[in-house]
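Hi everyone, sorry if this is the wrong subforum. Our group has a chain we'd like a structural model of before ordering constructs, and none of us has done structure prediction before. Sequence below.
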Amino acid sequence: MKDLWTVFYGAQSCSVDNGELCHADFGSMEDPFSCINQVQIDGTTAYVSQSAWIQTGTIRENILFGSPLDNQRYQQTLEKCSLLKDLKLLPYGDLTEIGERGVNLSGGQKQRIQLARALYHDADVYLLDDPFSAEYIMGALSGKTILLVTHQVDFLPASDMVLILQYSWMATNIENPEVSTLRLISVYLLIGFLLHSLFCAPMSFYDSTSLGRLLSRVSSDLSIVDLDVPFYLFFAVAATTNFYSNLTVLGVVTWQVLFVSIPMVYVAIFLQRYYFASAKELMRINGTPKSFVANHLAESIAGAVTIRVFKEEERFFMITFELIDVNASPFFHNFAANEWLIQRPEIISATVLASSALCMVLLPPGTFSSGTLSTHNILGIG
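Answer:
Right subforum, don't worry. Here is the predicted structure as tokens:
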């Protein structure tokens, strides 16, 4: 097995028979070879996955992948990967926006884009995980160390070494005795109802809806419907009932206070309508960045091996933090709007209470009993 890793130090190429070896090389899974304790790779690395991983963004951003633009090398890369013809068919060339998971690209176009991403980085070691169009860049990578993981025997004659992996388990079965069967069945039923609604949606819904928005619908939105809506509904009914009952009692005890209370009711209705106009937009804006965060996390998890191989972890961490900051901004403004609304009814309540106390002071002595005054004060404060 020692000879297997010495190919990383020479201008050789090697073919292997199982794609999971690529993940073991870069620490994404436990090494399938028990006799190999550590894999050391000198120089820079580039990786082409078997299933094309494409980010949301432009084609140029996917090819550069955080590297500065070198026009000459960039054009050579496009030519070697046969992307020039594809770019002519797109409305904005390499500046065309790619949808999530590359939904507006064909399978061949996605493969050629990720091949161009690997070729543009001019790495020392190339790991090709069974790309069906590897012949595009095999000639361009002469003099490079290539580890080609493939089931295609056509590439074997060009290899300096062939390693076949067989009779090896890639995962371990794990059982958790603490989880009951009934609990698992209930969870699966809930997931089944949710999946049923998603499966009944038309295909156009998935083409136009990002993964982050779907995750937001089945996580935070369901939490709001199950927990927040019942609580706020109960609170609204209780507060409305308490308001009208207190206003009725105050009107009976000191009818003079109605001259102040009724205008305050109209002021409260005006504030409510003024707040709702902004609150709806704030709630919508507050929910939008959540889908961006979820979408970015889903993309990062799907392309974790590629990100690790290209050593772009720090850049993706910074993008995540920026998206979290963007998500926190509308939440802060929504919270500030709520505090603004809370302060105005408190001012109205204080005005009504002060006017009630003023009426009691100005009215002739003996108009109210001590019990009436106590009840009035309690209702006014409430």
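For your construct planning: Residues 87 and 93 are 5 Å apart (CA to CA). The domain at 2-163 is CATH 3.40.50.300 (Rossmann fold).
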